[in-house]
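Budget justification aside, the reviewers requested a transparent look at the raw inputs and outputs of the sequence design task funded under Objective 1. We therefore reproduce one unedited record. The lines immediately below are the structure tokens for a 407-residue chain.
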């Protein structure tokens, strides 16, 4: 890929993505796949007047080895220096960038039960720090191609060709054209207009139906609003948490989901694939989870903690989205979730609550925002999907018809 184009992309991540402020620290999580691009992002951060940029390198095979050889107790132990580091993050509020490139199958064979047990140990320790940064920190997830990922998406191509094609797909769907910053401004305005309309309806519940058998009703929180595109942090910085993003999303009312919903794309979870699955909901909770492939993992997910069986997100994405139009299955949630409509089990987003800046996390939980250590998106959109909004004043308003916006 041309260096000048990559430079534009790096700038997009720094300026429109996290929107680095003068004197702010930046934390970048990256895999070993694209060191030259990571270098560009670091340089762009300094050009935007970052104080200090720190890169944390990940390597999937190492995660596997650590999991295999460490005991659950060691894996789940949060050391004193790690706690100090969390506190330092809360004190200094650095931007956080995740440059994802991992192999969708890269953690195959890893003992997920061990991982989940370890997480159950560490999560309560790190949770207060995570909560303290929720809504305060600017963050951004964007992608770069890894060889194994590219080969998975384009199995017929050579390694070099596959990486180049994945770069193209990433840049195209991320709107990296002649003037990416301008393109994002326009895109954000479009998403905002959709959300404003949805929020004006006063939706009590959404009813999803499709030819595949999906028939699900999900209740809304009266104080929740649809969000999409950029967000504003508590200190008042506008940033884009996802590049790309196509969704208008909301956190639904915990405890209000009835019916059945079928997945329409495979779910890639921690390097493993779950395919052709469905969830049956009763009183908001998953009471049945079946999959043709990966059913055990699906159930591990749903049983991760108490909140993992409840919905945390409803997101509306038309079938005409640029990602869906590429026809590519990315095996990666950042892209696949932005291809079509999706739901998520697990944690809800407090920033979908009106005036959340003045509320505590506990207030938001009380209003009906779900809490969990997981947040896992799964795709449910298809060409036959219809969605109706039942409003609080008794109207039924079509929101989706045949997989696309009805307004
Ligand atoms: Zn989403």
């Amino acid at each position: 890929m041309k260096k000048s184009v990559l430079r534009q992309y790096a700038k997009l991540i720094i300026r429109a993505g996290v929107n680095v402020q003068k004197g702010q620290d930046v934390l970048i999580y990256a895999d070993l796949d694209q060191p030259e691009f990571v270098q560009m992002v670091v340089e762009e951060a300094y050009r935007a007047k970052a104080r200090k940029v720190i890169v944390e390198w990940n390597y999937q095979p190492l995660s596997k080895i650590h999991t295999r050889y460490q005991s659950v107790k060691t894996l789940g132990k949060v050391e004193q220096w790690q706690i100090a580091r969390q506190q330092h993050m809360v004190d200094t509020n650095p931007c956080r960038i995740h440059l994802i490139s991992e192999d969708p199958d890269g953690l195959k064979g890893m003992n997920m039960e061990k991982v989940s047990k370890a997480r159950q140990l560490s999560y309560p320790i790190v949770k207060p720090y995570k909560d303290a940064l929720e809504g305060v920190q600017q963050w951004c997830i964007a992608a770069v191609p890894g060889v194994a990922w590219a080969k998975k998406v384009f199995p017929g191509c050579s390694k070099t060709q596959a990486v180049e094609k994945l770069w193209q797909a990433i840049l195209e769907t991320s709107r990296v054209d002649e003037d990416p910053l301008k393109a994002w401004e326009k895109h954000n305005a479009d998403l905002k207009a959709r959300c404003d309309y949805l929020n004006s309806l006063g939706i009590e519940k959404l009813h999803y139906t499709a030819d595949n058998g999906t028939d699900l009703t999900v209740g809304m929180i009266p104080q929740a609003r649809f969000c999409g595109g950029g967000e504003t942090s508590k200190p008042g910085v506008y940033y884009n948490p996802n590049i790309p993003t196509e969704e208008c999303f909301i956190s639904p009312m915990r405890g209000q989901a009835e019916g059945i919903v079928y997945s329409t794309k495979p779910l890639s979870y921690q390097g493993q694939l779950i395919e052709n699955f469905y969830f049956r909901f009763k009183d908001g909770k998953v009471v049945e989870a079946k999959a043709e492939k990966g059913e055990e993992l699906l159930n591990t997910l749903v049983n991760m903690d108490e909140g993992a069986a409840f919905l945390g997100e409803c997101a509306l994405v038309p079938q005409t989205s640029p990602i869906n139009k590429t026809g590519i299955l990315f095996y990666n949630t950042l892209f696949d979730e932005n291809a079509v409509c999706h739901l998520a089990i697990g944690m809800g987003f407090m920033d979908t609550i009106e005036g959340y800046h003045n509320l505590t996390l506990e207030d938001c939980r009380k209003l009906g925002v779900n809490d969990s250590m997981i947040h896992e998106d799964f795709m449910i959109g298809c060409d036959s999907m219809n969605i109706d909004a039942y409003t609080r004043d008794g109207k039924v308003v079509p929101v989706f018809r045949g997989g696309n916006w009805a307004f």
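The chain has two domains: 3-173, 180-405. The chain has a mean pLDDT of 95. Computational costs for records of this kind are itemized in the attached budget.
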